[in-house]
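#onboarding

Welcome to the new folks! Below is a worked example of what a typical request in this channel looks like: someone posts a single protein sequence, and someone else replies with the predicted structure as tokens. Don't worry about understanding the tokens yet, we'll cover that in week two.

Example request:
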Amino acid sequence: MAIITISREMGGGGIPIAHQAAEELGYKLINGEMIREIAPQYGLTSEVLAQIDEKPPAFIDNLDRQIELGMHRIQLIVLDQALKGNVIIYGRGGQDLLPDISSVFRVRVIAPFEDRVERWAEREWIDPDLAHSMVRKSDQQRAGFIKYYYDRDWEDPLHYDLVINTVRISFESAVKLIVDGVKDKNLVEKKDAGKKKLKDLIIQKKIQIARLADERIEDIYFHIDVEDGVVTLSGHVYSEAERKAARDDAAEVEGVTKVIENLKVVGYRSSSQDH
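Example response:
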């Protein structure tokens, strides 16, 4: 069950590198195009995808929950595809979505800002000033996306196994580094344990989606932990009805063998008008 994640910057060269690596390895590429194709199967529309894919939320109060729900559905698409193995996850915070799976090969493709602007202007046949604005906006959105959903600096090299500067390293050499790197024995030996953890992540994600979609649960301040199919719910809810709904939602997810419910019912409610 080989999994490669590629984090990239606009104009950095990640697109041709990911396609070529997928072709040479015979892996499936999980990118925006592929996600759009199967999104309707997960209850996602093209409008929702355009609003939330790799973007931080806009914090519109009445849409916050729907935005969160849509994001979890995108993540479930990626997780479901990752479970099949032999995939390259292009963007979408893949390196952070699979945090504790040691068999994942995490790659980042970078280049200096001005070089990326020049490449983007040439690729899209656009004015350099427009390319400058587009690359800057893309960097800000993707950095904000990773910070909001995963609380991490996406430029931190310690979260990757391989960082490639495509101004210094050719695209061909970059592909070779990725193709050789994913075959490293340290990754191959851990693939079975990784599959087990990935199944738990999928269960957790399905429960999160059910929780957000369940109108019986007014708020979502509780945690979901899954290990070997055993689900532990902890935190607080506002009523016994919410407590039961949370427990029922978890129990109904495929793959769950047991639900340990440690939820506390509390009477306190915060009001946004008080802030």
